[in-house]
Amino acid sequence: MTTPNLRIFSESNSAATAEHKPLAELDLSDMGLLLEDNASVVSIEGLESKVKQQINQILATASTALSADWAAVYLLDDETHNLILIDCCTNTSALNDADEIRSLQFSTADLEALTGHVVTLESRQRMEYWNAPIEAQSGICVPLISNDMPIGTLWFAFESPLQQADSQSSLCEVIADRVVDYLTRRLSPARSQQHTDMANLAKKWQHSRLAQNHIATTGWEVQGWINPEAPVHHTFYDWQSGEDALAISLAHAQGLSIEAALTSAVIQTGVRATAYQHSSPADTLEKINEYLWRGCTGDQFADLCQLSLDKQSSQITYSAAGSGVMLHVSSGGIRELGAGESGPELGVMDYGEFENQCCITHKGDFLILLTENAMHAIEGGSREAKIQKVQRTIGKGSRLSAADMIKRLRKLTLNLIEDDASIIVVKRTI
Question: Can you tell me the distance from the alpha carbon of 153 to that of 240, in angstroms, rounded to the nearest whole number?
Fold first, then answer.
């Protein structure tokens, strides 16, 4: 067997003597036995010794708390993309034949779990259909995710049907957090660096797909910004220029970073495809919503503000899904567009109630689009207070460029730090 590209720290043997207790009865001193800091690096081949004892202690305690008949930890092998069985414990001889090396490609339940979801398999048929690692009556698969990066899965199997699936699943998530805390303290620097490199590559790829941060076309100037400090982006801005109109998009995908980044990429591809079909903003939202609903897992949600700027007039046509913010700044002040009239988040239901609305602009007017995170980063309490703070910061702004307006807005969102967020500013120039 090829040695997996994974290294874990070993521990002192103090935890090996810890008494098995239900998870609910464990206190900090108990868990401290599992989190000793005297460590030395070993490979997976060495896990038969002290480290496996530590992992087995966690599994045994968790199995008691859940009344599970079998529990196991699988970690991802970076080189082979296999799932490697680190350790398992069982209360019955009937559950001893777990797969030690499993191809991630065919591990359906694990693949679903690694997107950030608990997978509950209530029957033997579902266990078989989802390619569980062991034959049992029922099971639960929980993702092990560290710093938004999937590192493996935690499995529990039962020789009887699940009686309280919701509460058991919730407890499994708590246990998974403790397993991740244990493992990530012991993952080698090399593996941690690999995860960092993967995140950097993903971020670089995302930036390559962004529209240029500035565009000027007949009657309009557009400037975009995305928080460069975010580890992985699940927001994006985009625009597509046609002969008669300029289509502008600002989206924010919900969920864990990796999953949301994929959802964001799917939406961006769909938006670009519909732009070439000269779809109206509402039509674009309906098409993207239908695609998410039918083609994805059913729990991928996103906010999307979609605009169409007429190059031959001062008219803006817009439609919105979810909680993105659109502000119109004119000589008469500032107002929110579509307040209380946005459709549901994309992906929530199989149909969307999206409508086109229009706004007439004049020379020097601005349109400001903010993702939900950018709006939340503005201090001020209520939504109305935040909008008024934007007003005070930018003034009437008619002499400012779109880039200058972005700079002023950034001063209001300095507390974003590593939160993902995007802003678009549109200026009417003629």
Answer: 41
Rounded to 10°, the helix 402-412/383-394 angle is 130
Average pLDDT, the chain: 78
CA–CA distance, 211 with 249 (Å, rounded to integer): 10
For residues 52 and 173, membership in a common domain is answered with yes
Q: How many domains does the chain have?
A: 2
Length of the chain: 430
DSSP secondary structure letter of residue 179: H
425, burial (CB in 10 Å: exposed 0-12, middle 13-18, buried 19+): buried
Q: Is pLDDT at 142 greater than 90 in this prediction?
A: yes
Q: Find the CATH number of the domain harbouring 250.
A: 3.60.40.10
Which domain covers residue 70, as residue numbers?
Answer: 7-194
What is the pLDDT averaged over residues 343-361?
A: 89
Is 203 inside any structural domain?
A: no
Bridge partner list, 59: none
Which one, of 189, 191, 232, 182, lies nearest residue 209 by Cα? 232
> Do 170 and 60 fall into the same domain?
yes
Q: Provide the pLDDT for residue 397.
A: 67
* Beta strands at 302-310 and 70-76: parallel, antiparallel or unpaired: unpaired
Beta strands per DSSP E along 1-106: 7-10, 40-43, 70-76, 82-90, 101-103
Cβ within 8 Å of residue 135, ≥6 positions away: 95, 97, 124, 127, 128
Whether residue 204 lies inside any domain: the answer is no
